[in-house]
């Protein structure tokens, strides 16, 4: 009996140690798996910093990495140039002589960062006490107000910054655009206007902490923390935000065309612009001592300008002589007739791509489409900086079908056939390559330095990306089911007709006034800043020979599919 009991006791001790060992092994295995996944993400991020790697289109946001910057293929993966022989003329029609980049492009997937997504909701807790506005800013706190997106009062301009929004940042942005009030909501959104919201809310309802300033309040859920920025506005240099649009023939009935007017002796541009800004109109029109405020309309479309002498002055003149012509200025106020956007109320039955090579103006085209249709565009990737600029479709899953179209740089049979139709945006490869190289070294709004252009990176970049430009177009022509080919240069020169064509392709009906609003806001926030090099030619003759062959190949393929060939300016230089 004692022997049996001893054996049982020994078995239980062994079992206890075995269970302890298995538990420890399980925990260690889980930890190793977590570390391995973390290492994979870090390793992918480090690949984007290699000097020999080129980055496709996408703005890198603060704290958010574009998936294409996390996992960029090297030039050797993009195209095996050592194996690529000079193509004969009879081989130029097909893409066989172009090494396919599809396997690399399949890896350019959308990467969601859970830490970022978890930060999207406003900071709120049960029993959260109302924060007191900080005194670090110069504006005057007015109070907490209700915010109804359908009937928004502060709608003159809208800004997002999900990482660094502060009260001062919002106030300065509104003051520079000649607005009187700045309102903050959700801890990250900034709204500007000249009229206070109608409904006040309890102070404790504004309980969202500013993303970029701990301890300060930036509104709440459907609540605005409103500040008066009159003092900042008075100190701002408003004249620098007034843009001369030109001299135009005045409409027959000025009072019917423009909603607001002012007649005053010794009227100046500053006086008229200030008056129209307070009325929240984007145009200030001067004729003699008369000042009119309004929008571009069918009566006054700002299409055909006249010589400045017919207005009795020049862009530097402070007044315009009375007569049949008038001087037109763009005020700092944003044209809000086309800024309202939303997701599709029902899932789209047609899955549409907005496809382009990086640097071809895809983001700008999205800006135009969103403002023309009133619907958000999606993206195959995720770009936090674009989301901050108001592209809310960035955060939506690209296959949700809640957006009017989806941005993509992908090519290859599988990736293309996922879409029912596509707008194929093509830009001059010389311009596209320079734009993408600028983006790689200076972001979307800057310019690469001389040192960058003269480095060995530039020749490798051209060798790799020039072939991608051609293969991207050829793949979409081959596998695309229903295509609308749009040339960037045509869209830029003939904005309204081309944009109307794109909108009709998307099966959306828009008004003429909305298209005119888009034209008035055509640039958005996508113009490069900084010193642009004049008469700069970074392409060697060898590079030109390579690119020119690709241009001829793509042009022939377009014509073979009964599309219009490439614009003349693409023709080999």
UniProtKB/TrEMBL annotation:
Residues 138-230, 241-338 form the WSC domain. One of its GO terms (molecular function) is sulfotransferase activity. It comes from the Eukaryota. InterPro entries: P-loop_NTPase, Sialate-O-sulfotransferase, Sulfotransferase_dom, WSC_carb-bd. Pfam families: Sulfotransfer_1 (PF00685), WSC (PF01822). Belongs to the WSCD family. This is WSCD1 protein. It comes from Thinocorus orbignyianus.
């Amino acid at each position: 009996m004692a022997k049996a009991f001893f054996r049982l006791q020994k078995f239980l001790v062994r079992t206890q140690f075995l269970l302890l060992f298995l538990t420890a092994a399980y925990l260690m295995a889980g930890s190793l798996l977590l570390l391995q996944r973390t290492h994979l993400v870090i390793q992918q991020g480090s690949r984007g910093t290699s000097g020999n790697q080129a980055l496709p289109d996408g703005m890198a946001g603060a704290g958010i990495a574009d998936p294409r910057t996390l996992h960029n293929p090297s030039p050797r993966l993009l195209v095996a140039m050592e194996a690529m022989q000079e193509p004969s003329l009879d081989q130029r029609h097909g893409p066989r002589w172009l090494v396919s980049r599809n396997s690399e492009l399949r890896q350019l997937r959308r990467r969601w960062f859970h830490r970022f997504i978890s930060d999207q909701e406003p900071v709120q807790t049960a029993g959260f006490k109302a924060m007191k506005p900080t005194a670090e800013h110069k504006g005057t706190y007015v109070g907490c107000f209700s915010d109804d997106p359908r009937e928004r009062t502060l709608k003159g301009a809208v800004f997002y910054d999900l990482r660094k929004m502060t009260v001062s940042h919002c106030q300065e942005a509104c003051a520079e655009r000649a607005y009187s009030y700045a309102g903050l909501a959700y801890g990250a959104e900034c709204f500007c206007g000249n009229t206070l919201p109608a409904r006040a809310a309890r102070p404790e309802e504004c309980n969202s902490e500013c993303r970029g300033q701990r301890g300060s309040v930036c509104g709440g859920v459907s609540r605005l923390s409103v500040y008066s920025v009159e003092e900042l506005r008075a100190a701002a240099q408003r004249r620098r935000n007034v843009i001369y649009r030109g001299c135009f023939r005045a409409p027959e009935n000025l009072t019917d065309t423009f909603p607001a007017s002012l007649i005053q002796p010794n009227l100046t541009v500053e006086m008229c612009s200030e008056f129209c800004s307070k009325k929240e109109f984007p145009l200030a029109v001067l004729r003699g001592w008369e000042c009119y405020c309004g929008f571009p309309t069918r009566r006054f479309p700002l299409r055909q300008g006249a010589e400045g002498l017919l207005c009795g002055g020049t862009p530097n003149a402070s007044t315009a002589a009375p007569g049949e012509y008038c001087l037109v200025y763009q005020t700092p106020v944003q044209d809000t007739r086309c800024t309202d956007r939303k997701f599709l109320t029902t899932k789209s039955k047609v899955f549409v791509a907005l496809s382009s090579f990086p640097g071809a103006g895809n983001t700008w085209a999205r800006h135009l489409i969103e403002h023309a249709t009133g619907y958000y565009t999606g993206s195959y990737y995720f770009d936090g900086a674009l989301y901050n600029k108001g592209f809310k479709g960035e955060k939506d899953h690209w296959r949700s079908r809640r957006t009017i179209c989806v941005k993509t740089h992908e090519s290859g049979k599988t990736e293309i056939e996922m879409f029912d139709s596509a707008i194929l945006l093509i830009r001059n490869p010389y311009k596209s390559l320079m734009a993408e190289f600028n983006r790689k070294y200076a972001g979307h709004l800057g310019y690469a330095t001389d040192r960058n252009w003269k480095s060995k990176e530039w020749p490798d970049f051209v060798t790799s990306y020039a072939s991608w430009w051609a293969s991207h177009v050829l793949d979409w022509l081959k596998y695309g089911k229903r295509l609308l080919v749009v040339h960037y240069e045509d869209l830029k020169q003939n904005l309204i007709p081309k944009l109307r064509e794109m909108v009709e392709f998307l099966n959306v009906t828009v008004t003429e006034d909305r298209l005119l609003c888009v034209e008035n806001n055509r640039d958005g926030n996508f113009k490069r800043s900084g010193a642009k090099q004049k008469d700069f030619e970074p392409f060697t003759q060898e590079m030109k020979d390579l690119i020119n062959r690709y241009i001829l190949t793509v042009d022939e393929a377009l014509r073979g599919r009964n599309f219009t060939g490439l614009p003349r300016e693409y023709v080999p230089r």
